Amino acid sequence: MEIPSLGRRLAALLVDWVVAALSAVAIAGVSYPPAPLDEDPSQTFIIIAFFVVEVALLEGLLGASIGKRLLGLRVEGRTGAPIGIPRALLRTLLLSIVLPAIVMTDDKRGLHDLAAGSRVVRVVRA
């Protein structure tokens, strides 16, 4: 198991955010960039909802979101299997409020990973 760099994790997060934003634009008609929060907070919340659904479903079922797959990362439980939708949803909701992701342990697990019983690993291809 290889612990991925913070840069790789942030790049995967950026890819997932762009996918969610583009999906919200295409499906829900949200403008991008969204209107400022003090004018119309609904647009930002729609993008966040798309992000949470996309990431939670893909990580819960397949072990990797689009961004993580592209950057060679995987979210897994203690057994190495995907964590399932309920735990992935908890993890992604906590990630969305940022602070739990910033506070990390020595092995680079954020509070969102500790709460969900998950870890992010780098997929090493032979």
Automatic annotation (TrEMBL):
Q: Which residue spans traverse the membrane?
A: none
One Gene Ontology cellular component term attached to this UniProt record is:
plasma membrane
How is the protein disposed in the membrane? Multi-pass membrane protein
Where it sits in the cell: the answer is: Cell membrane
Primary residence? membrane
What keywords would UniProt list here?
Cell membrane, Membrane, Transmembrane, Transmembrane helix
Highest taxon of source: Bacteria
What's this protein's name? Uncharacterized protein
